[in-house]
Amino acid sequence: MKQSIWNDLGVTTSLLGFGCMRFPVNAEGKIDEAQASAMLEAARAAGVNYFDTAWPYHGGDSERFLGRFLQRWPRDSYYLATKMPGFGDMTLEKAKETFAEQCRRLQTDHFDFYLMHAMSRQRYQLFKEQGILDWCAQLKAEGRIRYLGFSFHDDYEVFEQILNDRPWDFCQIQYNYMDTDTQAGDKGYALAEARGIPVIVMEPVKGGTLAALPDQAAAPLRALRPDASLASWALRWVGSHANVKMILSGMSSMEQVRDNLATFARFEPLSDTEQAALAKTKAILLSRVRNGCTACRYCMPCPAGVDIPGSFSVWNSFGMYQDAAGARRRWAAMDESKKPLNCVKCGKCESVCPQQLPIRTHLAQVQAELDAL
Ligand code: SF4
Ligand code: SF4
Questions:
Q1: How many Cα atoms within 13 Å fall on the side-chain side of residue 5?
Q2: What Å distances lie between residue 46 and 3, 15, 363, CA to CA?
Q3: Ligand 1 center to residue 98 CA distance, Å?
Q4: DSSP state of 270
Q5: In the prediction, which pLDDT does 222 show?
Q6: Which ligand is nearest to the CA of 291?
Q7: Which residue from 28, 83, 272, 362 lies 20 to 30 Å from 67 (Cα-Cα)?
Q8: How much is the pLDDT for 214?
Q9: In the 8-state DSSP scheme, what is residue 144?
Q10: Any atom of ligand 2 within 6 Å of the Cβ of 306
Q11: Which helix (H) or strand (E) holds 292?
C-alpha cells in the first residue's frame, strides 16, 4: 500500500482513504452491514488506515455503523475523520451537541482529523460568527481533535480567503482530471502546496463518472494500458500531485475496493505520455457531458419529490454515451412522481448545490430531451 507522509503533521497514512458515504445498501436503502464490513476488512488487510465519514452520510447511519464496526480494531491503529455539518442554522450550542453525539455514534473521545464540512462563503462566515471555529480550535488544544481542517465547495476566491484565514492543518478539495477549473481546482491545489498545507482529495473519480467512459473517450487510455481500469487512471492522476496526502474513494462494492487496492498496491505516477493520453480523453469528454452533477445529494430531499441527481444521471449518461435505448429504459423506469416535471421552482436545491448548477433550467431540459427519445 502506497504510504503518505504528511509533512509537518508527523503522521504517515495510506495514500488511499476509505470514504464512508457510499456503502452498499439493501432493499430498504439501509447500509448492507455484512458487505460493508467485508469491504472495510479487505481495505484494512491491504494497509488502508484512514476512514472518513460525516454527520449526514446515509442519514447518520454511516457514523453509527462505523462506530460499531471500528470497535474490533485498536483505536490507535487507524485514523478516523468526521465533520461538523454545515447546516445553515448552525449555532455554537448545536455544534457542541453535534460533536458530543458524533463521539457517541463513533464510540470515541477524539477524532484524528476533523473538518468543517462543505465550506462555502456563507457557511464559513456563519461558523466564524457563531464562534464554532474558535471552539474547535479549543477542542484541538484539549486533544479531542488532533488535526483541524475544512472541506470545500465554492469558488477559488473563497478557498483562498478561507485557507489564508487560519492556521489550518489540512484542507479537503474536490479534485480530478475533469475538475481542474472548478471550485478550488488547480489554483487552489497550487496555493495549498505553496503554503505547505496538506491536501485531501474527494471525488477523485467524480462520483464514479470517470470509471465508465465511452469507447471514444477511453481509447487513448486503453491504447497505452489495455488492462487498467478507467478508475485507476483517475486515481493515478490525483496521486501524481506531490502535496495530495490522502485520496478518498467512496467505495460501494467489493469490486471497487479490489480495483482501488490494486492501484495503490503498486502505485505509479502518470508518465508524460500518459498525461498526454488523459488530456485527449478529457477533451473528448468535455464535448459530451451535459452538466457536472457529482451525485453528492446535498440538494436532496426536494420538497416536490424530484429525484434531482437521478434525473441528471440519466441525462449525463445519455450525453456521454448517446445510448438512446439505455436512456429510454432508465427514463421509463423512473417513477413519474420523481421526474423534473414536478419541480415547483422553489430554488432550494440551487442554494445548496456545491457545483452551483442551474438546476431548475437543467431539469426542464432533462424532461424535454428525455421525453422526446
Ligand atoms: S427548485 Fe424544483 S427541484 Fe429544486 S428543490 Fe425546488 S422543487 Fe425541487
Ligand atoms: S444537483 Fe448539485 S447538489 Fe444535487 S446531487 Fe447534483 S451536484 Fe449534488
A1: 2
A2: 12, 12, 42
A3: 28
A4: P
A5: 98
A6: 2
A7: 28
A8: 85
A9: S
A10: no
A11: none
Q: For residue 321, what pLDDT is reported?
A: 61
Q: 3-286: what fold? A: TIM Barrel (3.20.20)
DSSP 8-state assignment for residue 25: B
Per-residue pLDDT, 295? 84
Which of 6, 46, 16, 79 is closest to 236 using CA atoms? 16
Residue nearest to atom 8 of ligand 2 (CA): 296
Other beta carbons less than 10 A from residue 347's beta carbon: 9
Q: Which atom of ligand 1 is nearest to the CA of 304?
A: 7
pTM over 0.70: yes
Ligand 1 pocket residue status of 167, Cβ below 6 Å: no
Pocket of ligand 2 contains residue 295 by CB under 6 Å: yes
Quick check: CB of 294 below 6 Å from ligand 2? Answer: yes
Alpha-carbon gap, residue 123 to 126, rounded angstroms: 5
What are the residue ranges spanned by the domains of the chain?
3-286, 308-371
The angle that helices 215-224 and 230-239 make with each other, rounded to 10 degrees, is 70
Q: Is the CB of residue 140 less than 8 Å from the CB of residue 146?
A: yes
What averages of pLDDT result for each successive group of 10 residues across the chain (373 residues)?
A: 92 97 95 98 98 97 98 98 90 97 98 97 95 98 98 94 97 94 94 97 88 90 97 98 97 96 97 98 87 89 96 89 79 96 97 94 97 94
